[in-house]
Design brief:
298 residues, alpha/beta, Aspartate Aminotransferase, domain 2, Aspartate Aminotransferase, domain 1, three-stranded mixed beta sheet, 10 helices, 10 strands
Length: 298
């Protein structure tokens, strides 16, 4: 589908809104629950980020915008924040802790720099500013405690265009995340996840709103491309077993529980159990999934 067509349809679901094309604005503070079990489980699993449980945590209106941006960027999902700066600070604090090191592009949006120098510095996070045109040379600046490389391309005021693929490749070799402020180009002109970015950030205050009417921010995550691949399988169903008659798949993270021999492999691990379905059906299922990732098995 053309990205021009995407802009017309993304985020809209008339079937769920009695045929109404544009999603209504939901007003929500108190949310009522049918029973105690539903109340206790209001923030369990995906409902923590997608469930309507209090207005401050999001409404169907917010979720529709996040879905539209995630689809446009090719990401797995996103969240809407109160401003572009809120999106930046939320993303940074999600991945940084006291004692961590942050590599921040020197041409960054000034309020982001202020946040790094004041709040993150007070919390024990060290920030090193780097030349926006450094490219693969970023590898020389990565330390053992570096957790994030923050990029912004073009630069907020001076418009340096960064070599995002080269920076991402160097960072990922050391298991360092790439965050990008994609406010200037927007996903319409630059697809961050296709160039190695892990988390994309936008100030919707700019082009998305027309530049003067709204203050809003959006964070989109790249994963789970893998999630969309697994979610769309027809025969490999999600289940923690092996040895049964049906094919199964589950995500796994050995690094979380290996102690004697640390798990150092990078990337996303999926465990497959091949059942008794027709071989060609299973191969077709896998092939369609790999197309979502734009990856070919070797």
């Amino acid at each position: 589908m053309s990205k021009h067509t995407d802009l017309v349809h993304l985020g809209r679901d008339p079937k769920s809104q009695h045929g109404v094309v544009n999603l209504p604005v939901y007003h929500a503070s108190t949310i009522l629950y049918p029973n105690i079990a539903a109340f206790k489980n209001r923030a369990v699993g995906d409902r923590k980020y997608r469930g309507v449980r209090y207005g401050a945590y999001g409404t169907p209106t917010n979720f529709a915008l996040a879905d539209a941006m995630a689809e446009l960027e090719g990401g797995a999902g996103g969240v809407v924040t109160s401003s572009g700066l809120a999106a930046v600070t939320m993303a940074l604090t999600a991945f940084l802790n006291s004692g961590d090191h942050l590599l921040m592009v020197d041409s960054v949006y000034t309020p982001t720099r202020d946040f790094c120098d004041s709040v993150l510095g007070r919390l024990g996070v060290e920030t090193t500013y780097y030349d926006p045109l450094i490219g693969e040379g970023i590898a020389k600046l990565i330390r053992s405690n570096t957790r994030v490389v923050f990029t912004e391309s073009p630069g907020s005021l001076t418009f340096e265009v960064q070599d995002i693929p080269a920076i991402a490749a160097a960072a990922h070799q050391r298991d360092v995340l790439i965050l990008m402020d994609n406010t200037w180009a927007k996903p319409f002109f630059f697809k961050p996840f296709e160039h190695g970015v892990d988390i994309s950030i936008q100030a919707g205050t700019k082009y998305l709103s027309g530049g003067s009417d709204l203050v809003i921010g959006i964070i989109t995550a790249s994963e789970k491309a893998v999630a969309r691949m697994v979610d769309n399988y027809r025969y490999f169903r999600i289940g923690a077993s092996w040895g049964g008659f049906e094919s199964l798949v589950i995500p796994a993270d050995p690094a979380a529980y290996r102690t004697a021999v640390p798990w150092e492999a990078s990337g996303y691990l999926l465990r497959y159990h091949v059942g008794l379905e027709d071989t060609e059906d299973l191969i077709s299922d896998l092939a369609e999934g790999f197309q979502i990732l734009d990856w070919q098995p070797k």
